[in-house]
């Protein structure tokens, strides 16, 4: 694999990581008044929090696997 492929993958992983971090931050910043919200709004907020955590986890896995591929060279 050439260097440009790895650079593109790093950029994609970086975007996924940044999106996950932003989702988690937005969910945590709006947690105030969580008990007074309707069940649907609670479900949506927890869904975004879970999605953000999932994206962060997937980007960490991608970084580790890409690091393993690069170290083979």
Distance between the termini: 9 Å
Q: How would you sum up the global shape?
A: rod-shaped
- Report the sheet with the most strands, covering strand number, pairing sense and barrel closure: none
Number of helices: 2
Number of strands: 0
Poorly predicted residue ranges: none
The rounded Rg comes to 17 Å
Please write out the topology:
Layout: H1 3-29, H2 39-71
Helix pairs in contact: 1-2
What does this entry show, briefly?
With 73 residues, the chain is mainly α.
Describe the structure.
Helix 1 runs antiparallel to helix 2. The N and C termini lie close together (9 Å). The protein is an all-alpha fold. The model has no long low-confidence stretch (mean pLDDT 85). The protein contains 2 helices and no strands. The longest helix has 33 residues, at 39-71.
Name a few traits of the molecule.
2 helices; 73 residues
